[in-house]
Amino acid sequence: MKVASIIVDVLAKGTDRPFDYIIPQSLEDVVVKGMRVIVPFGPRKIQGFVINIKESSDVARLKEIDEMVDLQPVLTEELLSLGKWLTEETLCYAMSAFQAMLPAAMKAKYDKEISLPSEEVKHQLHESVRPLFSKGSIRFSDVKNHPAAPYLLKDISKNFLDVTYIVKNRVNKKMMRGVMLSPSMQQEDIEKYRDGLGKKGEKQKIVLQYLLAQKEKMSVKHLKDELGITDAPIKSLISKGFLEKIEIELYRNPFAKREFQKTSALSLTEEQSKVIKPIHTSIEEDKHNVFLLYGVTGSGKTEVYLQSIQRVLEKGEEAIVLVPEISLTPQMVTRFKGRFGSKVAVLHSGLSAGEKYDEWRKIQRGEVSVVVGARSAIFAPFKNLGIIIIDEEHESSYKQEENPRYHARDVAIYRGEYHNCPVVLGSATPTLESFARGSKGNYTLLTLSKRMNNAQMPGVEKVDMREELRNGNRSMFSTVLFEKMKDRLAKGEQIVLMLNKRGHSSFIMCRDCGFVPTCPHCEISLTYHRHQNLMKCHYCGHQEQLATKCPECESDHIRYFGTGTQKVEEELTKVIPEASVVRMDVDTTSRKGSHEKLLAKFESGQAQILLGTQMIAKGLDFENVTLVGVLSADTMLHLPDFRASEKTFQLLTQVSGRAGRHSLPGEVVIQTYTPEHYSIDLASHHDYDAFYKKEMIMRKMLKYPPFYYLALVTVAHENMAVAMGETDKIASFLQNKLSSNAIILGAVPSPIAKIKDRYRYQCMIKYRNEPDLFSSLHFLLEQYKGKMQKQNLTINVDLNPYVMM
Ligand code: ADP
Ligand code: ZN
Ligand code: ZN
Fold first, then answer.
1. Is 391 helix (H, G, I), strand (E, B) or coil?
2. What is the pTM (predicted TM-score) of this model?
3. Cross-strand bridge partners of residue 426
4. Measured from the CB, is residue 299 less than 6 Å from ligand 1?
5. What is the average pLDDT across 372-384?
6. Measured between alpha carbons, how far is 371 from 741 in angstroms, rounded to an integer?
7. Cis previous bond, 751, omega within 30
8. d(CA 548, CA 60)
């Protein structure tokens, strides 16, 4: 007898452990570790991951595995152990960890099949339900919107009907007709037949000739296109047994229509050669090492990545490159595809689920050896990893904000250790955590201090917007910025304008009494959406009509404040009507391919101004851009987040880096209400080192990372007293468990004290060395599992949180 240990798809504390099932004889040699199977679980049939195969079990009366979902394992041995590690490191369920490693298209949904146990029951059913069963059993998804559905549900609850759960097998693969030389035929026989073909069989001859030379499966379409033939000769070869019909998997190639110009390795600068050397050594000697590649914008980091990967491919190994979603631009993709062609798979959120699945399958089958993608690409199922690169390592999007709450950097280092290969973290503005590790020697610090071709860093001018207002300029453009824009347009050069929308953008306020409309379900001000003339909550989607009168004081001086990109665009067309503007924000880039189109319009010079949110701050490289304007530098400074200064510094440095990357010199104008703030001041001097020193002093003083670790426990409940009380209990429990060096703050209301009608309280733990912390948190979650389910209490534990709200 063979037994499989299986993690089942039930997200609950009590079921977060392997369950044993008998592998039925018919599947004995078929079921292996890392596959998904369907198993009976209570009254249901659910999916599970096989994590182990054993000869016996301690449990009596085991049930059998029902059927298989996968025919090949979807998780490698390495990914299975990574999953285990993730559950320990992030306190998530094993199931969530495994699910996170697979493309969304593979997370099959369940459907329910409803059937009549016998004809006699029929008359007991509601009269509107009876006709539904005229052709036998039904799928719930097919009838759930039927007028009889409520009666159907009632009949089910009365146990009149049988319900079975089935896993929908979504068709993910696109298949097409293909042929191959019949494997049961000897090659000589095929050749003999070919040589015997006369004038009449000429077309058949061509087909055989071609297939004998290519030795590959071919789609029928390809054969017809390539050889200029019809179906007839193929059909007759099939009927004679020389060819065999097969199905060929067709990949939906999102870049099919694009041509990538082949590029080759540039000869490296002295600085580049110096930093690439230890990376190459690490690759050649199969040594795990973490490198922090600290290089100013435009210093040629990407070329270092490309030539490191080159070495990895020469060794027959594979590479993962992570870039932030936001900078996964066509420009970035082009650089990797241009160098490595069809060896590259690309994974980003702009792809449909099917396209992502296709890219993932190429990795799984070993058809590509480089993957470029956003966060989740770190789980690419490569088996011989030779390098992992994380570009813009400071980006907060590398931390997943739902379970499993992992940071891609930690996963990269885990995999790097497993495969004995280097991990390269690149940034012009590394996180304090990474730079501190680089300075202490935990990571190897590599520096690129100069821009390519000795291009100067752009000159930066700070403009005090309070001063502008005092001088009577009420527009959103300072006099300096406006003059410079005019100048560039006259010279035929291009401009990038960034509006940091993350602060308060377009909220509504009564000018008489200061009333700000907030969401009735969440404690957050509503955002004005001009196109629909609605106020919307960005947390729960609540929307209401724009108030024309203040509900507090009845004044009609109720206006929207803050500037959105839309408003800036309108203003631009008023004050500089001659310029053509490309606007890039979530609204204009949500459609597939729109990102690419907008950038192409700017690149071709059809537009002179590129206006956008943070999404334009990264990764873009346009030769003709000589002016960058930041409309309001300080919106992000005032968020309740200890990283606010760091994030402001990073963003300003990144966006400034868009100017003057090539032969034309660049300039930056930063508009701000707090020019004296050190983030803004030091960013304007491109002085990361001074910023690092200053910010480290602040972090040390306030006991924040990298001096302390953080853990954030957030509790939510519809009753405020319950949320507060439970958080208090958790805080004192931890106080007892942890050493006196740990600092426990709270219970306090979260910065966003209510979301979707649920009150939120939190407690923050600052600690340096608490070996008992993880086990205490585990214990806590275990203790609370009943309460969480029965009372609808939510407890979230975030280790190393990036979002403090
Ligand atoms: P970063 O990633 O550090 O911002 P990039 O890799 O984008 O910098 O390099 C900036 C520019 O310099 C790019 O246009 C790139 O093609 C060019 N470049 C990089 N390395 C070299 C080199 N060794 N020789 C010539 N040009 C280079
Ligand atoms: Zn009012
Ligand atoms: Zn809301």
1. coil
2. 0.78
3. 293
4. yes
5. 94
6. 43
7. no
8. 70
